[in-house]
Amino acid sequence: MKPVKVGVLGLGTVGGGTVNVLQRNAAEIARRAGREIIITRASARDLGRKRICTTQGIALTTDPRQIIDDPDIDIVLELIGGTDFAKELVLKAIANGKHIVTANKALIALHGNEIFAKAGAKGVIVAFEAAVAGGIPIIKAIREGLSGNQIQWLAGIINGTGNFILTEMRDKGRDFADVLAEAQALGYAEADPTFDVEGIDAGHKLTILASIAFGIPLQFDKVYTEGITRITRADVEYAEELGYRIKHLGIARRTFEGIELRVHPTLIPQRRLIANVDGVMNAVLVKGDAVGATLYYGAGAGAEPTASAVVADVIDVVRALTGDPENRVPHLAFQPEALSDIPVLAQGQVRTAYYLRLAAEDKPGVLADVTRILAAHQISIEAIIQKEPHENKTSVPIIMLTQTTLEQEMNAAIAEIEQLTTVSGKVNRIRLETLG
Ligand code: NDP
Ligand code: HSE
């Protein structure tokens, strides 16, 4: 059979890693795919730049449009990133009848509904395993391995850069900015690293996971996102003292009222496996009604781990080339006409437990005032600790864990606590999940 010809758009971290893996494992890959897969063309902005891969035998261009318009190319790998130009390229490639493999979660989360509709109409595949959790085959696991289940919830550490920063800060006491610079140098971070540290990248990934888990359209605009920039050393230490670890989680949960979609720092019990996922590693817990809880772990970013997912998609596409397009695995796991309009809940409607830290005057009655406000909002306290006053300070840190409550009740309670004259500054709140 004729070899399958691949055009690679972007030769950076992921593109370079993909070229390396496709070339190094070419023989093994051909044995799996049933056909030889060769990269004939590739593009980058600056062809003089030093690359992590060799490009011998590959025709290079600075213009990716030439590749998507080349009738010889069967599969286009979109590894440029961003949403505007990438969308233009992908839609044009689909119109030209090319199959697409992309690692671009922003593109899929924001424009996936349109892209999949156009791909479906044209009978081409858009594969995106690398878009979520780097090298972990989580899309395949949920879309195919768990397809007999009703997925109840999933929770994951789905940003490698953020987890790397939190781990280095906790274990080595390093500065946030210093660790972020290292993550950028290692190729983990997004072109705009605020996407990593403000939870936007994790929000893109959660959007995709929720869609394939619950059979709903991609709805990034409904995801609540909170980053890691406000986590303090004190909170990390108090959490540890209480038996918890702070992780940046993406959580999607099906409830009777609708679906919770949220990304935020979260206290989780230290005994959970996922609490011990450190550095650039990612992990996703998925709870299905039949299988129970399942856990997927692996490198969440970096050249070859991500290439592993890109190449697996390329092989899947090649295997599907000879099959009937009607019988392919649907892009979003459920048949396009069977997507559900189950609502995504506003963050105020979410139910979770909380860690609260506040600075209060060290005198009788203060704690009673705080607990009275919480009780008035039907918020039960699970644990409470009062620390020694800091040197030269009259206020004492009070740390509380609450039971599960409605977020809008917690918002109202916090606003009232912050009004107390005996409480100074803001109440620091971190959500808590037992993931049981
Ligand atoms: P890089 O910045 O390392 O690489 C981007 C590549 O695209 C470069 O080769 C660059 O050219 C080229 N490029 C950028 N802009 C243009 C443009 N306007 N026109 C033509 N070519 C362009 O990014 P990554 O490899 O890190 O990321 C690529 C995609 O993969 C993104 O969507 C990212 O979110 C995703 N991803 C990244 C992971 C990672 O670990 N880095 C993991 C999983 C997904 P040049 O090299 O000449 O500048
Ligand atoms: N910037 C992303 C991360 C790359 O750190 O997780 C992988 O998607």
Describe this structure in words.
- The protein has 436 residues and is of the alpha/beta class.
- The protein folds into three domains: 4-135 and 303-335, Rossmann fold (3-Layer(aba) Sandwich); 138-298, 2-Layer Sandwich (Dihydrodipicolinate Reductase, domain 2); 350-432, ACT domain (Alpha-Beta Plaits), CATH 3.30.70.
- It contains 14 helices and 17 strands.
- It has helices at 13-24, 26-33, 64-68, 84-95, 105-122, 138-145, 160-172, 176-185, 194-197, 200-214, 233-241, 303-320, 366-376, 407-419; strands at residues 4-9, 37-43, 59-61, 75-78, 99-102, 126-127, 151-157, 224-225, 244-254, 259-269, 281-288, 292-299, 351-361, 381-386, 395-402, 405-406, 423-432.
- The strands form two sheets. Strands 7, 8, 9, 10, 11, 12, 13, 14, 15, 16 and 17 form an eleven-stranded mixed sheet that branches.
- The longest helix has 18 residues, at 105-122.
- The site of NADPH dihydro-nicotinamide-adenine-dinucleotide phosphate (NDP) has 27 residues, from helix 1.
Count of discrete structural domains: 3
The CATH superfamily of the largest domain is known as NAD(P)-binding Rossmann-like Domain
Low-confidence stretches: none
Secondary structure tally: strands? 17
Distance between the termini: 51 Å
Characterize the largest beta sheet: strand count, sense, and whether it forms a barrel.
Answer: 11 strands, mixed
**CATH architecture assignment name of the largest domain:** 3-Layer(aba) Sandwich
Ligand list: NADPH dihydro-nicotinamide-adenine-dinucleotide phosphate, L-homoserine
CATH topology of the largest domain: Rossmann fold
